[in-house]
């Protein structure tokens, strides 16, 4: 069927991550213990195609016309009228609805350094919290009487039936690298297709302009994220990896791989080197290993550190800013850092 929503599809790359069990922002757990779907987690059989498959979802309705039928990760959902009371179940959905000018009535928090991404905090004052992104409070959601719930299979797939009994529920496959495709899907659910395409075009222009600032050899970028019991170098299939690809900025060492991330030990810290090093922590630095790593002599020996090109960035922007507002902020910050 012909779709009315314009889509810009990224090249199809189907490479599963070698590190099984890495989720978009926190540790994956055993499928029996999580409400999510491990098939779409990193290393799962559906991880590598999440962007391509999400791009096939959406609606055949004319922009802004209701009722409409939405094809999404869990099937088909009828939305009778333009949603006014929206509950969002992850940071990507939060960024997306706010980008489209819609303040949700309910949201979830994360286990990161900031429960709500700091760059969005001033826009959600008074919005009720309905649990964590992997542990929902269904009663709180029901009390809000939403007319649309937005989430993903990765986070709360096993609670889809309960959620859809409360209100029309639209799921993406997973957060993370398919953030542009997820945003289009959310735009379709809200009847804001035109605004969604415009926001993505603005982002694309900003990313290209960033890359165009470098006329000669472009600097290599290293992405280092400290997490409890994990040290990761982020690859192409991540929010920031997609942004760097869109800007045409090369990756350091072996980081330009079609995976979410590569995990290394502190003994292999040399692999984190690059012309520019951007690092952050998912949680408090003393609990993620960041404090210990930066005190390690191997860190001070990295050329990026020695040249003053290592910068600590906001984790809740660079890894949890899973929408156009967050992506544009990352592009802006990248431009400022790369000018130093």
From TrEMBL:
GO terms, biological process: iron coordination entity transport
Keyword Ribonucleoprotein: no
Record SUPFAM superfamilies: Helical backbone' metal receptor
Keywords in alphabetical order: Signal, Transport
Example of a GO cellular component annotation carried by this entry: outer membrane-bounded periplasmic space
Residue ranges annotated for the Fe/B12 periplasmic-binding domain, each copy included: 85-340
PROSITE patterns from the UniProt entry: FE_B12_PBP, PROKAR_LIPOPROTEIN
Signal peptide: 1-24
Compartments reported by the entry: Cell envelope
Family: Belongs to the bacterial solute-binding protein 8 family.
The protein, known as: Iron-siderophore ABC transporter substrate-binding protein
Organism: Tsukamurella asaccharolytica
């Amino acid at each position: 069927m012909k779709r009315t929503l314009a889509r810009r599809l990224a090249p199809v790359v189907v490479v599963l991550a070698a590190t099984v069990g890495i989720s978009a922002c926190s540790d994956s757990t055993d499928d029996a213990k999580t409400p999510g779907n491990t098939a779409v987690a990193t290393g799962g059989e559906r991880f590598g195609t999440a962007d391509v498959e999400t791009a096939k979802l959406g609606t055949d309705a004319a922009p802004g016309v209701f009722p409409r039928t939405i094809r999404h990760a869990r099937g088909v959902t009828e939305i009778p009228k333009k949603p006014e009371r929206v509950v969002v179940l992850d940071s990507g959905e939060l960024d997306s609805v706010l980008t489209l000018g819609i303040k949700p009535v309910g949201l979830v928090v994360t286990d990161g350094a900031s429960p709500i991404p700091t760059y969005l905090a001033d826009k959600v004052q008074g919005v009720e919290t309905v649990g964590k992104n992997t542990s929902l409070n269904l009663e709180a959601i029901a009390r809000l009487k939403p007319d649309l719930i937005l989430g993903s299979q990765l986070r709360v797939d096993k609670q889809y039936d309960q959620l859809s009994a409360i209100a029309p529920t639209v799921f993406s496959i997973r957060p993370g690298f398919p953030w542009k495709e997820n945003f289009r899907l959310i735009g379709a659910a809200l009847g804001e297709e035109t605004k969604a395409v415009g926001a993505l075009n603005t982002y694309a222009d900003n990313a290209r302009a960033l890359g165009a600032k470098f006329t000669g050899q472009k600097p290599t970028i290293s992405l280092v994220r400290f997490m409890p019991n994990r040290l990761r170098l982020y690859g192409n299939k991540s929010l920031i990896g997609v942004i760097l690809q869109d800007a045409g900025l090369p990756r350091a060492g072996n980081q330009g791989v079609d995976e979410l991330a590569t995990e290394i030990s502190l003994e292999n810290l040399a692999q984190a080197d690059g012309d520019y090093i951007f690092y952050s922590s998912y949680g408090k630095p003393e609990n993620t290993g960041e404090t210990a790593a930066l005190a390690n002599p191997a860190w001070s020996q990295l050329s990026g550190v020695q040249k003053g090109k290592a910068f600590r960035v906001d984790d809740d922007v660079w890894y949890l800013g899973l929408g156009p507002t967050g992506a544009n902020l990352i592009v802006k910050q990248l431009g400022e850092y790369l000018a130093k």
